[in-house]
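tool=predict chain=A
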Amino acid sequence: MQIYLDYSATTPPRPEAIASLQIACTQLWGNPSSLHAWGKNAATVLETARMQVAQLINAPHPESIVFTSSGTEADNLAIMGVANLYSQPQHVIISSVEHPAVSEPVRLLEMRGWEVTRLPVDSKGRVNPQDLREAIRQNTVLISIIYGQSEVGTLQPIPELAEIAQQHQILFHTDAVQVAGRLPICVQKLPVDLLSISSHKIYGCQGAGALYVRPGVEIMPVLAGGGQENRLRSGTQAVPVIAAFGTAAQLAASELPEETARLTQLRDRLFTLLADTPELVPTGDLEYRLPHHVSFCWQHSDYQHRNGRSLVRHLDMAGIATSAGSACSSGKLKPSPILLAMGYSETAALGGIRLTLGKSITMADIEWTAIALKQVLARLH
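tool=predict ok
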């Protein structure tokens, strides 16, 4: 029995998205910047997808959607696009649990002389809004806080955090890659200026992402070229994967209420089934949490050989795909920086494991996963 429980890493493209991609590849393959019929047909596909993605986050102006190659590029465009407005280094605020797509470009800014504040989180991975208020300086120009943490599933209080930024007239960006298509987002009510999403997290194809830029917000392009995407992202658009992105976004929006409720039920059931396994300690906030996300810290006396990565490998041999937060660099196992930021010890932070659910997962899959995981743990004890 094969069970894929790594939907936070990538989702399988849904048939409707693949069909859109195939039609664009075989029939609508023109350059959307060209003036002839082939170009106009491709441009129509592109703008249809822009409307579909805009509707997923309730953006009233489709032109506020800037297509990119990925969620990572969208994050980089948001951060570096703001930074490039300034000739002198300024101050930026992020959380200590950001995805590398945010933390790494900010680190590069820091190397260029920018001041960076990394807000602490509590043991559940949440930012305290008061810490944000106290971190703001006269030269703070950008705040970027992840919406839903991919490793431990915690949701940040983005409405409150963004409201604080708005009160101080500071641009606010959120990486919503894990949230879009899984929870409702309405940028008409959510006071964010910039928001990143990704196609392959919502059953579209890999190779497309988008940055929402609130109308009136100015950022600088990162790529120089022909001025596509409202002069913010030069380069001929990948029309086929963007078409798939649009189809996936439209279907995700229509299915959102039912699928969110279903995933939440499956998520809670898996937590319940594993509650009698003391070596698995749930991580993240169990109340403010992504609906599809289950994560644990595997407590074991021999972390060098019994860690999250080894558990992932054993589950893979049992036919279950999961992921771990620790990483192996130059032959040395490195603890999860997210768990370290949440207060876990270096040894405990080697034991993180994540199981994320999606459209194909049934209650029977959840029941079997719990049985198989307990069997694997018993063998590794």
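The mean pLDDT is 94. The radius of gyration is 21 Å.
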